[in-house]
Amino acid sequence: MKFLNNMTLGQYVPVDSPVHAMDPRCKILATLFCLIGVFMVREPLGFALWCIFFAAVVSAAKIPVRLVLSTIRPVWILVAFTSVIHLFFTQGTPVFAWGMIRITHEGIIMAVRMGLRLMLLVMFAGMLTLTTSPTELADGLESLFSPFKRFGFPAHEMAMMMTIALRFIPTLLNETDRIMKAQIARGAELERGGPLRRLRAFVPVLVPLFVIVFQRADDLATAMEARNYTGGEGRTRMNPLEWSPRDSAALIFSLLFAIAAIALDGRFFTL
Amino acid sequence: MPIEVRDLVHVYHPGTPLQTKALDGVSFEAEKGKWVAIVGHTGSGKSTLAQHLNGLLIATEGTVKVDGLSVAAGDRTLRQVRQKVGLVFQYPEQQLFEETVFKEVSFGPRNWGFTPSEIEESVEKSLSIVGIGRELYDANPFRLSGGQKRRVAIASVLASGPDYLVLDEPTAGLDAQGRENFLALLTELRSIGKGVIHITHDMDLALGFADIVLVLDSGRSVLTGPPSLILGELLEREISGLVIPDLVRFAGRLRDIGLEVPLSWDPFIIADAVGRSFKR
Ligand SMILES: Nc1ncnc2c1ncn2[C@@H]1O[C@H](COP(=O)(O)OP(=O)(O)O)[C@@H](O)[C@H]1O
Ligand SMILES: [Mg+2]
To answer: What pTM, to 2 d.p., does this model score?
Structure first.
């Protein structure tokens, strides 16, 4: 029996590829451009361009397509829900009517558009975490946020918290799995009944999990203090980030591509 | 009728890069009133095997039967199996969640639909077996000592009235006294007719207490039998990561240099035999 397998969101797949080798700051910024770009297109050409770009990134990153697609799994309900809402509740020319239900031409277009947009957003964000280790990601964010330090923004602390949180996701999933199994072995039925009953049935899992989380947090804090951790002041790195000309090229290319996709979007064919 | 495991294979995450064959053709039997020890190094598949015995994991290949009920997908029999086979996970004290010891131990019986009087009876019985007195019934389980917590957790599994008890490394993290008490508890459970399946990496414990020892190595069952019968092979075959008790190696060495000593893990048997062969 599987309880919590198959979690891909936030999972890093270490392979040797040009995308993996890029500076994390470059990848974070490029991802940001892509997310904005995907948000701003609405016509077939724009989406087609982004799909091609995405496919190119995936093949350069040497990540199996199955893993890339599985990044959608945790949010597919959200995607489906959004699409269905748009399908049924958009005003316009009806193409199909049955009792209360009316599906319009505009509704279909909106549903496809929103569905595609959300999937692309999630998959682009997923590519960032698939190709960047949590440590690199945190280092990148810390470096990008460090200009704001002078306004009192705790860049290092935020990055450290993020690294720790990411680091503990697999551990916590394992612990959750173990506690769930222990309670099922004691006869708990976690998957029966309505939402309220299920929620109540989860108390025997959540309480031990909280205890474990606090225990771990406490241990970790002690361990960090014992190693004289005092925050970001004066810390050096084992692997300093190195920005190469290739990173500049990649960043400029993705920025230009995003601008081009937005500009070309409605030029030739609109729905 | 016993627990019967035949040619059990378990593959984690089949068809993904994380695919791991944790069990690779394991067979053994366990009976009520008998103590089976499952020994093997870390990662040899002991915990995976334990979870098959009450249907928390389902066999990739092979069969698991509990008193004739086959442990396969299908809800009705699975729940029956789970009530028959109590599973005590490693560090079971981490599963505690209720406000009082009594409520904690009654969680299982409530889930299995015992009546209030049955619940009270089974809670009292199982708490008395593990040696937790009435004065602690209303205590907060999180306030108890480590050893007490573990005993409450085990009582909470016993309270469902299982015929078999599977314990995954139950002595991990206990001091010598706690370990002694614990082994006495398992001996008592066996004597009241429970089937005890004790998972451990400690060969000393397995040889000293179990009726049957099953040795796992990288997911395979490499040796099965009563302690006295498997000793010879245990010495001859190098089983990776398994520490053979010093006394057994000592007895083996004495035999190698020509003394008439039985292979044993018991210091007194060895000493007596050595004494006899010197007198001659
Ligand atoms: N949930 C899991 N997912 C993937 N692999 C696992 C999982 N649990 C255990 N394994 C693997 O299966 C093998 C056997 O593990 P386990 O049954 O825990 O051994 P033991 O209890 O003897 O230490 C190990 O190689 C381990 O890495
Ligand atoms: Mg184990």
So the answer is: 0.76
